[in-house]
Structures are given as structure tokens and as C-alpha cells.
Amino acid sequence: MFLAFFSFPSRNRMLKLEFRPHSMDFLHGLNPQQQEAVAHVEGPLLLLAGAGSGKTRVITHRIAHLVEAHRVPGPCILAVTFTNKAADEMRQRVNSLLGGLSSRESPQVSTFHSFCVRTLRRDGARLADIRPGFTPKFTIYDDDDQVALIKSIFRSVGLDEKFMQYRAVCSWISHRKSRNETPAHVYSSSTDPNTTRLASVYEQYEARLRQANALDFDDLLLETVRLLAHDTSLRFQYNRRFEFLMIDEYQDTNHTQYELMRTSSATIRMPR
Ligand SMILES: Nc1ncnc2c1ncn2[C@@H]1O[C@H](COP(=O)(O)OP(=O)(O)OP(=O)(O)O)[C@@H](O)[C@H]1O
Ligand SMILES: [Mg+2]
């Protein structure tokens, strides 16, 4: 069983009044359950269906239906998924349904990470209040950059790969970050010298990222969540803008991704 998406309108749009019955019919060619999901406008919706049964098709048709039949401006719709490949495919499917929309009129279809990069680059300046030294021209550290950084930290503290493989350290740090555990948390809960050493590596890793105005992949999500929590006017702006949110493969969202979508959108009730 797979969950396809969750969505809601974030403010009281008079959708029924705006319905245009003679617009292009994006309900055509769908089975009754798909039609019901595509035609659903008000309130959250969770779609559960098996692999290859047409969940992404529902999302793309629903986007087209909202734009065409309900006159929802494209930029008020955000659709997110996990991989670049899936996002590209979804974007192409939406474009082929709607055709001819300029990039300013298009719905935003992206991965969680690209949504964050875009947010931090365009609207992230105030993150500097809570992440000193941050600027929207930050660098993104990929896996290889992370490994190089861990290697350099190991050298500076006299550890080598026998202590722990570099990539395993990266995963360990990523796991801590996904649980919102700072180096200070790890220090305070550590009961053995190896964990304390790892806490020290983690602390230096964080310090070096900040010095370089760099973010790793986990930070892209975490810092966007923090930015939206911190910058109230930006959060309101996003809440007003993203009236319709759709998440493909919703079952795969982790806590941070869930928080990100929850804060980007308004007063919402998300199933969990
Ligand atoms: N009602 C339908 N009539 C005809 N073809 C359909 C219908 N629904 C889906 N399809 C086709 O089935 C294929 C799979 O659809 P889609 O990618 O939307 O499924 P999915 O549930 O998202 O799959 P996955 O589990 O792989 O993400 C596509 O080629 C799509 O065009
Ligand atoms: Mg799909």
C-alpha cells in the first residue's frame, strides 16, 4: 500500500463560485476513485493505492483541474516528491496537461531538497539571526565534501579510519540531525569514550560547516524549518501563497519533511 498525497486549501477561497464547468475536463480518462480524488478541493485528502495504480496521475490531474476549473493560480500550488527524477517526471506530466504556462504561472513541482534550496537562496537572509555567518550564497556539501571534511577533522584530532569509517561517521551525524540531537545533546547523554569522541567530531563538523557558510543535505531541510519558524513574516507569506499542497509518496516523509510541509502551509490538519 502506498500513500500518494495529502492536500488542503489554506484559506477560504470561494472555490465553488469559481468553478468553471466548461473548462478542459481533467476528470476524463480516470476511474471513479481517481475522479473523486481529483475533484476533491476542500480539506485534507489522503490517497492510498497500490504501486502503479495511478496515484501520481491523480496528483497531476488534480493540479491541472485546480488551475483550469477552479482558477487557482499555478504558484499557489506546491507539489513535492523525493527524487529529481520523480519531480522532473511530474513537472513534465503537469506541463503536458496544462501546456503553455510561463514559469511565473506554473505550479511549483519540486523535491523536498530543491524546495529548501530555493527558499533559503531567495528568502533565507534572516536565517543569519539564528545561524551566524549564514548568507543565501551558501555552499551545499554533498557526500564527498562531507567525507573530506570528516577526514580532515579526524586528522586534526588524531583519529584515523580504524576508529570509524568516514562514511559511517557521516551517517551517524545525519542520524543525530534527523533526531534533532545537537553535539551538546550527544555529549550530555554519552556514557562511553567513543560516543564522546564522536560528539567532538560532530561539534567540529558543525563548526566547520558554519565557518564555510555551508549546509549539508540534512541542513537544507532542518534550516528551512528553522527559518520558517523564526521568520514569522516569511512563514505568513508562504502560508498565504501555498494554498494547495500535494506530497507524492507521502509514506516516505520523515519527521523533518513533515515539519517542513506543516510550517510552509497554514493552519492545517495533517494525517499522521
Ligand atoms: N485511469 C487510468 N487510465 C489509463 N491509464 C492510467 C490510469 N491511471 C493510471 N494510468 C497509467 O498507469 C501508469 C502508472 O500511473 P502512475 O505513475 O500515476 O501510478 P502510481 O500509482 O503513481 O505509480 P507508482 O506506484 O509507481 O508511483 C501511467 O502510465 C499512467 O498513465
Ligand atoms: Mg507515482
Describe the model.
With 272 residues, the chain is mostly helical. Helix content is 53%, strand content 8%. The chain has twelve helices and seven strands. It has a three-stranded parallel β-sheet. A two-stranded antiparallel ribbon has the order 1-2. Helix 4 (84-98) links the parallel strand 3 (77-81) and strand 4 (108-111). Helix 3 crosses helix 4 and helix 8 (183-189) packs antiparallel against helix 9 (193-211). The longest helix has 19 residues, at 193-211. Magnesium ion binds at residues 55-56, 248.
SSE layout:
Elements: E1 2-3, H1 15-18, H2 32-39, E2 48-49, H3 55-70, E3 77-81, H4 84-98, E4 108-111, H5 112-123, E5 139-141, H6 143-157, H7 166-178, H8 183-189, H9 193-211, E6 214-216, H10 217-230, H11 232-241, E7 244-247, H12 255-264
Parallel strand pairs: 3-4, 3-7, 5-6
Antiparallel strand pairs: 1-2
The structure holds adenosine-5'-triphosphate and magnesium ion.
Magnesium ion is lined by residues 55-56, 248.
Brief summary:
The chain has 272 residues and is mostly helical. It contains 12 helices and 7 strands. The site of magnesium ion has 3 residues, from α3.
Strand content: 5-15%
The global form is: elongated
Fraction of residues in H or I helices: 40-55%
What series of H and E elements makes up the topology? Answer: EHHEHEHEHEHHHHEHHEH
Radius of gyration from the CA trace?
Answer: 21 Å
**Number of β-strand runs:** 7
Unreliable parts: 10-17, 268-272
Structural domain tally:
2
- Largest sheet entry: 3 strands, parallel
In CATH's first tier, which class of the largest domain applies? Answer: Alpha Beta
Q: Given the structure, what is the number of helices?
A: 12
Report, as a whole number of angstroms, the end-to-end distance.
15 Å
What small molecules are bound in this structure? adenosine-5'-triphosphate, magnesium ion
Structural category is: mainly alpha
The CATH architecture classification of the largest domain is: 3-Layer(aba) Sandwich
CATH superfamily of the largest domain: P-loop containing nucleotide triphosphate hydrolases
- Could you say what the CATH topology of the largest domain is called? Rossmann fold
Give the overall pLDDT as a whole number: 89
List the strand order in the largest sheet: 4-3-7
